[in-house]
Structures are given as structure tokens and as C-alpha cells.
Amino acid sequence: MAPVNITIDGRKLQAQAGQTVYEAAAAAGIEIPILCHHPALPPEGACRVCVVEIEKQRNLQTACTYPVAEGMVISTRSPRVMEARKFALELIVSDHPLDCMTCEATGDCRLQDLAYEYQVRDDVFAGGRQHSWPIDDPNPFIQVDRNKCILCRRCVRACDYINGVEAISIVHRGFDATIAFGMDSTMEDSPCEFCGSCVEVCPVAALWPKQSIGKGRAYQLKQVETVCSYCGVGCKVILHVKDNEIVKVTGADGAANHGFTCVKGRFGYDYVNHADRLRKPLMRRYLVEGGAKPALHQPNNGNGRGEYSRAANPAAEWVEVSWEQALDTVATRLAQTKEAHGGDAFAALCSARCTNEENYLMMKLARQVMQTHNIDHCARL
Ligand code: SF4
Ligand code: SF4
Ligand code: SF4
User: Is the dihedral of CA 188, 190, 194, 199 positive or negative?
Assistant: First the structure.
């Protein structure tokens, strides 16, 4: 699209026709605060925190919805703008629990950050507060606290546009307005697929991952960017780690997922620290101590159909060994097999759960080391 010439805070810039004022400012490194807006979602213009002053416009305009036009002159921090933003935040805070001291979101809360930046006090509009919603939902993944909801509709839009499920809406009006799932039932009883996209975009603690509750403040968690190991899509995720334990997973802005994940990637991480996981390699005893490979044993179950197994033979028991010993044994055995029977005695099956680099290395092992083309991938099977 053709560029348009605009001025923001005295800086002359070129923006793309069709961009909003918020997008043009962000592209030029000029920060306009947002609360109901999320760059991955269609704009809503509901919270009025992103208002800016535009020459020849009588009213302040929401930067997240207003399109740029040739010759537009915009002020993002004029006294009128700052006063309007503060007023919008005071209204939001006037019906908010303000239990930041014990709230899970403290240190990772958009409303808290803006209240701090605009010096919003909680006593400006004294009056009723809507604090009577029961907290929680019977589902195993997401805690729902409607008392902290600021009705920004980010979750509604994420569920509609990112996941395409439309499980969330806003019901009732005025002071009683609140988020609802399905036909105003629980999240568990709604069409929700627990992708967690609504949690990802919620700017406060109204939707929060249950597994991370009480596990640490944002500043106590180390963030490690990685690739989800569940399938071949390759979603980029951030592991939030405390004391060498994953306490939360959030989406990262990768080419395959743009900050969002499915239910497995976001909530299915407790296996990583599970006590039953193998932590050291195991080898059959006869491989460690030498001796013949035990014969398969068929238990006599009366009908001759028992499963063959080596379990009854002590030589077949599993023994813990070091990685060096395990890898040495594998390398020696593969070399012996190749020498005795040729490379085609070897075949490799790769997995979509591995990274491209791991699959590439497996291909190198098959073709260059074992000298066979016997290699395939689960996606083709
Ligand atoms: S959601 Fe944010 S503003 Fe609200 S209590 Fe929690 S930390 Fe404070
Ligand atoms: S978890 Fe996903 S499917 Fe469920 S309500 Fe949230 S966005 Fe919609
Ligand atoms: S639950 Fe969170 S994302 Fe949804 S409307 Fe409330 S504050 Fe916004």
C-alpha cells in the first residue's frame, strides 16, 4: 500500500495506508499504552487507555482503531491525553479487588503497570464493587476469577479468532456484566478446548493457569525459550522455571504459532519433573556383564498364547549405567552389525517430535555412518 506522511509527537514519519495510529507509532518505536488491545487480535477500542489527540478532531481517538491518513498530526502524551488515560484507569480500578499483595499476577499485570505509570489511586470513585463472584472453575487447567475481570474482551476475541471455538462471551449489562462460558455454565461444560489462548492474552489475573498458582512471582522465574516437544508443528514456547522445575509455559512468537499453543504444549508439562521418569540409561544385565542373550520365554498359561518375554531371566534384568557406557555399547553393536551383515541390516525411524536438527543428524547416521538409505519418518507412515 502507498505510504502516507504523518507527524507523531513532532516526529515526521511515513506510515502505511491502512495502518492504525497504534501500529504506525509502534513501527516507529513510539509507545502508546494498550490494555484491551492485543496486537494479535482485531481492535476493540473498549478501554480508552490508548487515546491520542489528533489535529482537527474534536474528540480524543483510540489509537488502536483509528486509521492513519495523509498529513495527520498526532499527540500521544499531551496533558489532555494523559488526563483522559488516567481517568479511564481510575474508572477500571474503581471496580477492581486491588489485592495485588497476594495476587498471582503481581509483577506480570498490565493493569498494575499502567496504574503505577499513571499514579492511579483506588479511592477516587468510592462506591460499590463487584466482588461476589465465586473464584475457580471445575476444569483442571484454568482458574477463573471474574472479580478481577476488566471486561476487555481479549479472551473473547482470542477464543473466536485464534482458536475458532467461541466458548467465551460477555453476559449481563452494567455492573453485572461478566465473562461467561458456553451457555453461561462452567468452562469445563462449555465447548472450551483448553488451548489457553484466553489465559495468554488476559491482561490481569482473571484467567490464570492453575498449575502455576503459588509457585513463584514473575521476577523469581527464569524464562527459557524452547520448541514444544509434543508434535511436528514446532511451536515456540517459553518455560518459566524455578528451582529447576517448570512452573508455567507460555507461548513465544514463533513462525509456527505466533505466541499461542494447544492444550498439550501449554499445560502438559508435569511429566518433565515426574518421579517415574528415567533419569539414567538402562541396559540389560547380559550386555553389561557379558554372556549370551537370554532366550525368549513363553509363560505356560494353559492355552499356549502367553506373551513371549525375557523377564524371567536374571540376565535380562535392567541395570543402570552411565551415558558413556550406554553410548559405547550402542556404537560397538552397530559397528559389529554393519561389519557382519552390511549397512542395510540397519534401519532408522525418525519422529516429528524431534527437532529438524535431530532428524538431520539421524539421516547423517543412517546414510554416512551406516551407509544405508533405510531411513523413514513417522509423518509418512
Ligand atoms: S489482577 Fe493485577 S491489578 Fe488486579 S489484583 Fe492482580 S496484580 Fe493487582
Ligand atoms: S482455553 Fe482456548 S478454547 Fe477454551 S475458552 Fe480459552 S481460548 Fe477458548
Ligand atoms: S477474563 Fe481477562 S481477557 Fe477476558 S475480558 Fe476479563 S480481563 Fe479481559
Answer: negative
| Domain covering 219-277, topology | N-terminal domain of TfIIb (2.20.25)
Identify the pLDDT of residue 356: 84
pLDDT tens per residue, range 73-92: 999 999 999 999 999 999 99
What integer pLDDT is reported at residue 305 of this predicted model?
Answer: 64
pLDDT of residue 39: 95
Domain range 122-214, its CATH number among 3.30.70.20, 3.40.30.10, 3.30.470.20, 3.80.30.20: 3.30.70.20
Atom index in ligand 1 nearest the CA of residue 97 equals 5
In the three-class reduction of DSSP (H, G, I as helix; E, B as strand; rest coil), residue 142 is classed as strand
Report the separation in Å between the CA atom of 51 and the middle of ligand 3, taken as the mean of its atom positions: 20
How do the domains of the chain map onto residue ranges? 3-93, 122-214, 219-277, 280-321, 323-381
Q: Long-range CB contacts (< 8 A, 24+ apart) of 13-16? A: 15/68, 16/68
CA-only gyration radius of the chain, Å = 29
Atom from ligand 1 closest to the CA of residue 99 = 5
- C-alpha 186 – ligand 1 centre gap (Å): 23
| Residue ranges for the chain with pLDDT beneath 70 | 1, 297-312, 381
Residue 56, Ramachandran bin (φ over 0: left; ψ between -120 and 50: alpha; else beta): left
Please tell me the predicted confidence (pLDDT) of residue 298.
Answer: 62
Ligand 3 pocket, CB under 6 A: 149-155, 179, 201-202, 204, 206-207
**What pLDDT does residue 381 have?**
60
CA of 34 from ligand 2 middle (Å) equals: 22
